[in-house]
User: Which sequence fits this backbone?
């Protein structure tokens, strides 16, 4: 069985990417969920998982930046 926190973080990042791509109005909420999941996962992860989580965090930071620059 894998690290459940890692799985939750990965799934949350994937959902955030999908929502951002489709222009979903709740994208920022999903970005926040992903950030929380990433934080929880980081403390329970192996070195290899931490590298992947860092990559996911970069994706979320980019999505967050894009979401904050969209006109209302």
Assistant:
């Amino acid at each position: 069985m894998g690290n459940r926190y890692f799985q939750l973080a990965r799934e949350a990042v994937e959902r955030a990417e999908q929502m951002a791509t489709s222009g979903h109005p709740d994208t920022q909420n999903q970005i926040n969920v992903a950030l929380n999941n990433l934080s929880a996962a980081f403390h329970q992860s192996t070195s290899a998982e931490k590298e992947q989580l860092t990559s996911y965090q970069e994706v979320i930071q980019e999505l967050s930046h894009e979401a904050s620059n969209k006109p209302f």
The first helix runs from residue 4 to 22. Helices lie at 4-22, 27-42, 47-68. The CA atoms of residues 19 and 35 lie 15 Å apart.
